[in-house]
Amino acid sequence: MTEPGPPPGGRLRGTPLHDWHRANGGRMVEFAGWEMPVQYRSGIVAEHLATRRDAGLFDVSHMGRFRLRGPGSEAALRRVLTNDAATLAAGSAHYTFLANDRGGAVDDAYLYRFGADDFLLVVNASNRARGFEWIEERLEGGVRLTDESEALAMIALQGPGSERKLESVVPAGSLPEARRNRHATVRFEGGDLVVARTGYTGERVCFEIFAGAERIESLWTRLAAAGAAPVGLGARDSLRLQAGLPLYGHELGTDPEGMEIPIFANGLARFGVRRPGGGSEFVGRAALERQREALARLARGDAGASAVLPRVVAPIAVSGGRRPLRAGQKVLHGDVHAGYVTSGTSVPTGRDDAAGRPEMRPIGLVLIDSALRFREDDPARLRVLDARGNESDAAIVTGNL
Question: What predicted TM-score, i.e. pTM, was given to this entire model?
Fold first, then answer.
């Protein structure tokens, strides 16, 4: 088995596209031990809008990619992941978690099934070594676990124009069927790519593409030449926040007070945790079933369920303000401290102001007292305090931000 290690001499890692980013205006920053572009010359707002209006191109090769093969692979994944690998057909994928016995997230991940005994698991860059060790410790015989993050690169192509651009560089008719979480192997310049209809932007038309590291720059440059806009980490974050998607270390893991965040504090848990009853045992099952039941009780107005889910993650938007929300800011309901901002930014509304500049709207995700999230008789008007004591009026909202 191959275990990931730190970069030699403590140096930052670079993806196979590192030199391209530097040569093409990428502003490079440190992220989870990698040097990655946070934006390009056009800027974060332009990159955000390019994705929403046409197609954005993202280097996500910093994420971890583990291959599990062998006759015990499905059974192993059913034990160590919250979603049920047995429900995946070859050519499909799903969202899942690595959970601990308390129902907290070790990580969230995406699982792709290639064949009866062949899987690929994509994990967060910050949890690559931890996730590998977590899985390895829980494997039994008949499973080969390898870290393929260096050899297998990964990019994302997201937005309404993505399919047209991708079809211009791969054989006609070779893309996976137009249903989310489907994937297919396609040919490109004499080699294979795995093209999946998955992504992290909330876009309906979305692709994540896996290719050998030696082939990824050619694919990237051809997609960019077809009109896909390179997008850095800044707009990747604003896009996922606008779609209300969690990020490990913010909405998953531990909160600003150092307390563990239950997985079911996030709405995506309903997609990433298998249905209760029957099936095989998995790590965290008992705790997660308690959390699921508590969530249902909270929805019925049972405040006693807050003992299991004291706070939940909810999207908020600021009214009448311009200052972006930032992680760690306190949230008050009336004069009561009700939680924290876990992620915050400002996003373009899609409208321009009188000067022709994009109008911006401060948005965020908050970890907030669970009773507020489910009270229909209270619109949950909130006050957000920044480090200088400035206040912004905000409200819990529903749907995309």
Answer: 0.94
